[in-house]
Design a protein that fits this description.
By secondary structure, the protein is α/β, with parallel strands linked by helices. The protein is 28% helix and 22% strand. Helix 2 (68-80) crosses helix 3 and helix 3 runs parallel beside helix 9 (302-314). The longest helix has 14 residues, at 128-141. The protein binds D-aspartic acid. Residues 14-15, 62-63, 91-93, 116, 118 line the site of D-aspartic acid (DAS).
């Protein structure tokens, strides 16, 4: 029994830890965060057969309230742990962002597996117990020092995974499919995870704050007045642009001005496919935007591009465009 791997389970809150909250008048079954890491682990007796578990509650919030400092604390705690691997439970709303942030800043040498639940423990077909079990199972078996997201028996790379549905159990999807899956307690790998090479790997280990970077999405007929506020308040901008990386002429003019002073990243609202670089030539299309100093998000969606940019700006990186492009390309090139 003592030969079982030692796994630290850190709980941050989220639906997986939510129970009906009597204080929410009129909403008899409405849930809010309450269960601790210990509660979650104790509710799954099957865990005893696959791991020795230490449980710790680092926060108990809905995941929209998580931020850099909580994920930094989590990564620092994980890096100091003597466990064989770490499992993190949290809300699914920001899971794709927190796991991506952790992938960039974590300095430890044990894997971290993030998981959560689409349905709370009191709901029919609640998925929290199964997800926590498969996350722990993955933690006991995974060899690579890397960060993964395990949901609905699929093992995802934080670089590609996205929450794609409001309530479905298979809400988490990756553009090119998951890295692997769990079937009858066995892991089947479908492709190797993306890994950060030396140099990039250590780049953000010492970082202790992120720079204020805003992500703004274009939509039909919007005159872009919000862009006038960006320069005074933020140190960088991510534009969630149309299709292949396109904005209106009105936006293009404003963005050209901002890009003279701040790094401006162009991502695609489609979230799938690489932002194009050499196809469309009209004003506001990718060739125009990039010739005016803007930077392609490549394959990263806007939220992940924002995280990488906020780290690079916080580090006072001299050539943000070169560094952003280099890291993004390393992240999306699966060996
Ligand atoms: N959407 C909820 C969840 O799935 C709430 C949250 O993200 O905390 O966990």
């Amino acid at each position: 029994m003592n030969d079982l791997p030692l796994i630290d389970v850190y709980a941050l809150g989220g639906t997986i830890a939510m129970t009906p909250d009597q204080s929410l008048a009129g909403q008899v079954d409405a849930v809010s965060p309450s269960l601790t890491a210990d509660d979650l682990v104790k509710s799954i007796p099957q865990l005893e057969k696959i791991a020795r578990i230490r449980a710790e509650t680092l926060s108990n919030v809905a995941s929209a309230n998580l931020d850099f400092s909580i994920i930094k604390k989590l990564c620092d705690t994980a890096a100091k742990s003597d466990a064989d691997a770490i499992v993190v439970t949290q809300g699914t709303d920001t899971l794709e962002e927190t796991s991506f942030l952790a992938k960039l800043i974590y300095s430890g040498d044990k894997p971290i597996i993030f998981t959560g639940a689409m349905r709370a423990p009191n709901q029919l077909s609640s998925d929290g117990a199964a997800n926590l079990y498969t996350a722990v199972l993955t933690a006991t078996k995974v060899q690579s020092v890397n960060v993964f997201v395990v949901m609905d028996n699929q093992i995802h790379d934080p670089v590609f995974v996205e929450k794609t549905h409001t309530w479905a159990l298979d809400a988490f999807r990756s553009e090119y499919g998951s890295d692997g899956y769990i079937s009858e307690d066995r892991i089947f790998w479908q492709k190797p995870p993306s890994e950060l090479s030396d140099g990039i790997l250590e780049m953000f280990h010492e970082i202790d704050a992120v720079a204020p970077v805003v992500c703004i999405s274009i939509s039909l007929g919007d005159n872009g007045a919000i862009l006038d506020l960006v320069e005074d308040r933020y140190h960088g901008l991510v534009v969630d642009a149309y299709g292949a990386g396109h904005v209106s002429e009105q936006w293009a003019e404003k963005l050209n001005n901002i890009a003279r002073r701040l790094p401006v990243i162009i991502a695609s609202q489609t979230s799938n496919g690489r932002v194009l670089e050499a196809t469309y030539g009209y004003k506001g299309a990718e060739i125009d935007l990039f010739s005016n100093g803007m930077i392609s998000a490549g394959n990263l969606n806007a939220k992940k591009a924002r995280i990488l940019l906020s780290l690079l700006v916080a580090k006072k990186t001299a050539d943000v465009k070169k560094s952003f492009t280099h890291i993004m390309d390393r992240l999306i090139t699966v060996k």
